[in-house]
């Protein structure tokens, strides 16, 4: 069964850190660009970060630059999003997406993981 599963979300205080994981089963992530998207309460969905299939190129939402780091381990068939200096406005459901190229939101979506930043 093909699945894309996010994990690592939770409740964290402002200034804290979380590491999100995106694991694939039943297929390989290695030949696809992978993006992280989020949708906060009452907000539109937005792209947070993307990494090319080679891992050479990465892209970030302006508000995520310097705080978030995307990485991949093709041997483990996984992609990660390390988030630091979290802010309340980072509160959202975060989705891992196998995109048809970084810059696109079209592709195969995971179910999402909730991140809540609150004191």
Give the helix/strand layout.
Layout (H helix, E strand, L loop, with lengths): L2 E5 L2 E3 L5 E8 L7 E7 L6 E6 L6 E3 L7 E6 L4 E6 L8 E8 L7 E3 L3 E5 L2
Parallel strand pairs: 2-11
Antiparallel strand pairs: 1-3, 3-8, 4-5, 4-9, 5-6, 7-8, 9-10, 9-11
Oligomer: single chain
Number of helices: 0
> How far do the termini sit from each other?
39 Å
Estimate the strand proportion: over 45%
C-alpha Rg, in Å?
A: 13 Å
- Uncertain regions: pLDDT < 50 for 5+ in a row? none
The coarse silhouette is globular
What is the number of beta strands? Answer: 11
Class derived from helix and strand content: mainly beta
Average pLDDT figure: 95
Helical residues, percent? under 10%
The sequence of SSEs as H and E is EEEEEEEEEEE
Largest sheet: 7 strands, mixed
